[in-house]
Amino acid sequence: NCTPFEKYENPDKYFDMAITSPPYFDVEDYVGGAQSHKEYSNYDLWVEKFYSVLIEKTYHALKDNGVFVLQVGNQKYPLATDAIKIAEKIGFILMIREDAKMGNNVVNTSDEDKETALVFKKYKQ
User: Fold this and answer.
1) Percentage of the chain surpassing pLDDT 90?
2) 62 with 20: CB under 8 angstroms?
3) Comparing 4 with 108, which gets the higher pLDDT?
4) For residue 4, with 0-12 CB atoms within 10 Å meaning exposed, 13-18 middle and 19 or more buried, which class applies?
5) H-helix or E-strand containing 86?
6) Per residue, what are the HEC states of 36-83?
7) Euclidean distance between the first and final Cα of the chain, in Å?
8) I want to staple 62 with a disulfide (CB 3.0 to 4.6 A). Which of 25, 66, 75, 114 is the partner?
9) Partners of 94 in the β-ladder
10) Exposure pattern of 87-105 as b/e (b: 16+ CB <10 Å)?
């Protein structure tokens, strides 16, 4: 049974590190299971109900001084910019923003829209 992450009850202050490359809203359509872009009909709603929840739940699941690595693509949406805003608002500090130099040949990704790895840290409060 697969539970969508936004509905999963994760432990508090349990992990030292989390790493993910979440769905890019409707850029990719996966086979099987619940799809967040089908659950939330537009990008703004998706950011509110899925993306923000994912980042916040990850923050709470990390121990103090834990690290969160988020790899996103900006092919259609400002996922990196939005992630930084959300993460910093809840207490993460952006440590590294590294362009992964990976693009999408199907949509001819421009250099500024290629994959980006964001490394956040949750400092002890």
Assistant:
1) 46
2) no
3) 4
4) middle
5) helix 79-90
6) HHHHCCCHHHHHHHHHHHHHHHHHHHEEEEEEEEEEECCCCCCHHHHH
7) 35
8) 66
9) 120
10) beeeebeeeeeeeeeebbe
Q: Which tokens belong to 79?
A: 């996922």
Q: Is 119 helix (H, G, I), strand (E, B) or coil?
A: strand
Strands 62-72 and 93-99: unpaired
Burial of 117 (0-12, 13-18, 19+ CB in 10 A): middle
Residue positions counted in the chain: 125
Evaluate whether 67 touches 124 at the Cβ level (below 8 Å).
Answer: no
Report whether 97 contacts 116 (CB < 8 A). yes
pLDDT at 85: 97
